[in-house]
Amino acid sequence: MRLRKENILIVDDDLHILELLQRHLHSWNYHTYRAVSVKEAVAILKDTHIDLLITDLKMPQIDGFELIKFVSEHYPDLPKLVVTGFPSVQDSLKAIKSGVVEYLTKPFTKGELQAAVAKALPKASKEPVKNTVPKSKHQGEIIGASEKIEEVLQIIDRVKDNKATIFINGESGTGKELVARAIHYEGKFSSAPFIPVNCGGIPENLLEAELFGYTKGAFTGADKDRKGAFQAAQGGTIFLDEIGNASLAVQARLLRVLQEKEVVRVGAQKPEKIDVRVIAATNNNLPEMIKKQTFREDLYYRLSVVEIPLPALRARMSDIPLLVDKFLFKYGVEYKDRFVRIDPEALEVLKRYSWPGNIRELENVIQRAVIMCDKMVTIKDLPDHLKYSLEMPEHKLVSLAQMEREYIKKVLRSTGNNKTKAAEILQITRKTLRNKLDES
After folding, report:
1. Per-residue model confidence as pLDDT tens digits over 90-126
2. Which of 192, 278, 311, 396 has the lowest CB atom count within 10 Å?
3. CA angle at 247 for the pair 242 and 249, rounded to the nearest 5°
4. Coil vs helix vs strand at 241
5. What is the domain extent for residue 190?
6. What region holds the Sigma-54 factor interaction domain (predicted)?
7. Distance between start and end Cα atoms, the chain
8. 250 occurs within a structural domain
9. Are 421 and 363 part of one and the same domain?
10. Structure confidence at residue 129 (pLDDT)
């Protein structure tokens, strides 16, 4: 007797076959999910524990072989059973080499299907399949295997089940909101609301009303009482992105919220108690802002009970292949209706670049490359500024000073001529950078 119902995913563009398979599997007390395309199947795999995949091979757009390859790479322990109406020796050998454990030809009997499923699931009742990306640790949408990301994931794991105030610090494009979402959705409060607020994208005179709510008549246009983001996040998490852009007045009110665990709507007198986890983030240097008296020191210490420093992409270059694979799959399916690969030489170009725009810039580059490529992303599909290399012909030997100037120019090109960002990458001051440029 089985200890639990196994989850079986059936993939076939023939609705009659889907219904037949589902009816048989239900009669044997299996739980089924069904998909009419590889796109739909992948979406189910990402969100659902599956014990066995049953798939057809011949399907429009993305075929079953591509799905088998994807599953073999991303869910290596998941057994695969092929059901096909177009059998061939070549296809059967290809399927077996791809890790398929059973191969059925249509039409098949109910007994043949039952035997194939039972053979493919000898351990399913005892050992659930682990659906994990090999060699990559992840929380939510955060992907990486580097030491820097491992440190971030460890902190997330420690804080996800409590409501300590968290401060995420990192450059633009490093994935601060992804970290905030991982903390919320991977923890025990995931069923409660997650409310993101971009403090830099809301006009200063409206930010207080957005955060704390307002009463009818509090200002022109306030025709009824309205809850703010803090009330909407009750029991869950509010994510204050770009907190460094909040005015001193808003900062003062935030400090009181953190101290008293209550908010007062704009135009009201009576406070409202709240139970909310606060996660704040910025790409600004808050200690420098504190020195300039543009950010409150007491609020900074209230926000940074737990601080998560998020590394720039150039500090975790070993994660680039994993991120590239993620974005190739995402945009390959969206734009090409198939899985797009990348030429090793093009991947090497991506691994040499300094990525001043971090993961957001990498994603944009891959999105563009998928649109521009034919069957595979090659060097020609990458932006020109990525193709530039400092490598020179062996016969062209230059002085160290000239080599330095060439490298400075390369970094400037990679940052879109942003001298502040270039100085950070080169680990020199803007004044030193300006002097070196004047020398050239």
Report:
1. 555 555 555 676 777 878 888 889 988 988 886 444 4
2. 396
3. 135
4. strand
5. 137-311
6. 142-371
7. 79
8. yes
9. no
10. 44
- Report how many domains make up the chain: 4
- How far lies 11's CA from each of 15, 36, 37, in Å? 10, 6, 7
The residues of the chain scoring below 70 in pLDDT are: 1-4, 86-99, 101, 122-140, 388-398, 440
Which pLDDT score, from 0 to 100, does residue 393 have?
45
CATH number at residue 21: 3.40.50.2300
pTM above 0.85, yes or no: no
Same domain, 357 and 246: no
Q: Do residues 291 and 180 share a domain?
A: yes
Does the residue 129 lie in any domain?
A: no
Close Cβ partners of 197 (under 8 Å, ≥ 6 residues apart): 210, 211, 229, 238, 239, 240, 241
In DSSP terms, 11 is beta-bridged to 35, 55
3-class SS letters over 120-147: HCCCCCCCCCCCCCCCCEEECCEEECCH
Q: How long is the chain?
A: 440
- Evaluate whether residue 131 is within a structural domain: no
Reduced to 3 states, what is the DSSP secondary structure of residue 422? helix
> Residues 222, 342: one domain?
no
